[in-house]
Amino acid sequence: MGSGGVATAAAAALGAVALAVAMAGRSASAAETTSSSAQTTSSAAATTSDCTSMDLVNHNITDYIRWSNMSDRLYLENGACVTLTDIYESRLDDTGNKGPLYPFDETTLDISDTVTGSWYLESTLYITEGSRLVVQGLSKGGDCDHLLLASSPEKFINLRAHGGELMLDGTHVESWDLAAGTVDENNEDGRSYLSAISEVITDPAETCDGTAKNDMGEARMDIIDSEVNHLGWYDSESYGIAYKVRGFCKDLSNPELFDSVSVTGDILGSDIHDNYFGHYSYGHQGGNWSHNKMHHNIGYGFDPHDDSDYITIHNNEVYNNGWHGIIASKRCDHVSIQNNHVHDNGHINEAGQRTGNGIMLHRSSDYGTVKNNVIHDNMDSGVALYESSYCAVSDNKIYGNKNGIRMSLGSSDNLLYENDIIINGPDAKYAIYLYQGNDIPDVSDGRPRNNHIFDNSLVSDNEVVKMLNSDDTAFEGNVVYGRVSRFKDSFNTLWKSNFVEDGIHDYKLELNSCFDPESDIEEPDTYEDVAAMEEEEATTYSYSYSYDFDVSESGFFCA
Q1: pTM of the predicted model, to two decimals?
Q2: Collapsing DSSP states into helix, strand and coil, what is residue 453?
């Protein structure tokens, strides 16, 4: 029997019964999980948005709210705690409203002289020196149900906490082209955005490229029970909702910066959509991003980036984003991604390739937890680990993606357990996929190793497991529906106590691959023995070496 014979038979059997049964059971469970995780109510912990009034007995209002004609910019300064009404009233005089904040009429879609609870901001606003701006909905006792940020081909603005705090609570913020009477849907020519920037000079002698230039202090931005949409473009710090610690040297020579400076803020119970990125952070510490809908963003959904640690991403629905649904990238350790419904993310690129994972831990995003998520119909893999280690991926329901879980470029010492993975359809590849890849590793030699994959349900009508350039991987206690697993240039794989559908599995060993001698499968003596075993109807296991490569020099088991 040729090397494809067992796989062909397996695909037919799998498609007929086992896959249908498995899909039905897991679809019901997925629907149940989705029902609870898609809620975007503010059952998440509330964050106070009380605001202490300015001291206008001992200070002029211009001590707190300052307009600069030169920069066309409004500043909140000197620890002010300010509302939009405060800003509006500070800019009124005998000649009327001098701007840049105007009441907005939702009927005429134009600025107004009457305060309506909707506001149009036509110039950039910086919140500095520990000041705080509260943008709060009327139902919560505030003065703003709708804030429109001027955004057109001629001009776009930035609402920025730069050493201050921005609170959005029960409100709606979006870009607005006043002349066109609609949101700004064109991000190519710049588009208005929200940001929180922490900038502290920790070492005045530091001269590296990237060091902090201004001693502005730390920033915070909270988005609670709000809608934020049609913001951001591709320029740095301008992605829509952006958190950033400035001052990290481009040569990575001052990692201690993140021990003393951070940017903070929570995103809870909100609807984030149609932005360039749904969210981006750099140096964020301890954020809670839960009970949100994150969808239809051009790039990523949630994107905690460089050194954003101890982030909680729970109970969100993340869908129809153009790139990855959730990605933690570059030294984002101890990220917790749990109870989310992540689906339909990614796109087909110009080369016709499916790209975009449901959840990805990238470049030393170590000690992460990916648990109890429903992850389906993403363009690439359900979960991807890329040079990330000591992570736990468990209790997820993963189906309808190109791959189930993939680990690459030196991802090591990870635990994958109690996941239900189903791979089927014309674009389906592998339930479990390990490989080195062609990228240059930062902290490893590039070969995945010491990963433990146990107690999972693995279903594939293609290849169940594919391993390239991977060492010391353990598969234990898994339930396997499928006929073929392929091991290429992979050393010392432990295969033990796995239940294989109908007791038949085709193990293809290529380029010096071999099993750990502790594996509980029997070594075939010759090709003739393999063929004879495959012809028996009651075979316990079947084995084969690929006919396209030499038999492992070490034999079926590693020496």
Answers
A1: 0.89
A2: strand
